[in-house]
Amino acid sequence: HTAPVPRFYVDSDSEDAKNWTERKARLLWQKGCQAVMLGNAKKYRIDLRRALIQSEARCKNLSQDAADIQESLFEALQKNESLRHTVTQQSAQLQNMHESHSIEKAGLLREKHDLERELST
């Protein structure tokens, strides 16, 4: 009683050997394709994850930039309001000074006319 001959020891010219070789080649090809597809899927998933992390970081930076801009705008508005208040105050002071000078000028002109009248008599 002899041990069965392993499949890969069959006569390489026989039909069994050719079928076995083709089947084995097909299986290896399929496994290879699956491995490549899995590898690509893993790489794709890693790339997507990396892109997602980068996008989240960019969003966080943009949110921070937006908050900084909003804060700057608020400060600018406050300064603008403060300047408007100052300009309004200074405008009122100038108006008062103008009125005072007009009154003073009118008084000086009256004095001048009075003096001229006194001198002419």
Which descriptors would you attach to this protein?
121 residues; mainly alpha; 1 helix; 0% strand; rod-shaped
Give the CA-CA distance, first to last residue: 167 Å
The number of distinct β-strands equals 0
* Radius of gyration using CA atoms only: 49 Å
Major sheet characteristics: none
Low-confidence stretches: none
Helix and strand content put the structural class at: mainly alpha
Helix content: over 70%
Which descriptor suits the 3D outline?
Answer: rod-shaped
Order of H and E elements: H
Share of residues in strands? under 5%
Count of alpha/pi helices: 1
Mean pLDDT: 86
Topology of this protein?
Elements: H1 15-120
Describe this structure in words.
With 121 residues, the protein is mostly helical. The protein is 88% helix and 0% strand. It is rod-shaped and about 165 Å long. It starts with 14 loop residues before the first helix and ends with a helix. 0% of the residues are buried. The mean pLDDT is 86.
